[in-house]
Q: What sequence folds into this?
C-alpha cells in the first residue's frame, strides 16, 4: 500500500478524522542498527470528524485531542514514548 494512502486510511480507522491536506514530512529508518522498520511521517491539516472506519484490530483506542499549546506541553513533558510520533511533531513544528 502506498504510504500516503495508508496514512489516510490509518488516520480514519484510528481516529475517525479526515484531513483537507496531508503533507509528507519524510520517511526514516526507525531501527538504524538493523536497517529496518521504516516510518513514513505526515502532517494532517484541518481535520474533521467523519466517523471511524470498521477495522479488525483487537486494540481499544482512546482518542485525545490537544490544541497546539497543550500538545507542546505534552511533548515537553516527554509523555510521548513513540519516537516516530515525537519526530513527526518536531518536523511539523519546524
A:
Amino acid at each position: 500500500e502506498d504510504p500516503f494512502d495508508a496514512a489516510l486510511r490509518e488516520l480514519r480507522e484510528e481516529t475517525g478524522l479526515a484531513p483537507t491536506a496531508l503533507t509528507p514530512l519524510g520517511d526514516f529508518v526507525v531501527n538504524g542498527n538493523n536497517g529496518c522498520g521504516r516510518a513514513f511521517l505526515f502532517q494532517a491539516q484541518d481535520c474533521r470528524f467523519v466517523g471511524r472506519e470498521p477495522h479488525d484490530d483487537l486494540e481499544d483506542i482512546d482518542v485525545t485531542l490537544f490544541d497546539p499549546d497543550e500538545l507542546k506541553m505534552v511533548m515537553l513533558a516527554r509523555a510521548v514514548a513513540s519516537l516516530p510520533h515525537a519526530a513527526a511533531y518536531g518536523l511539523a513544528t519546524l
In short: Strands lie at 17-18, 21-31, 36-45, 48-49.
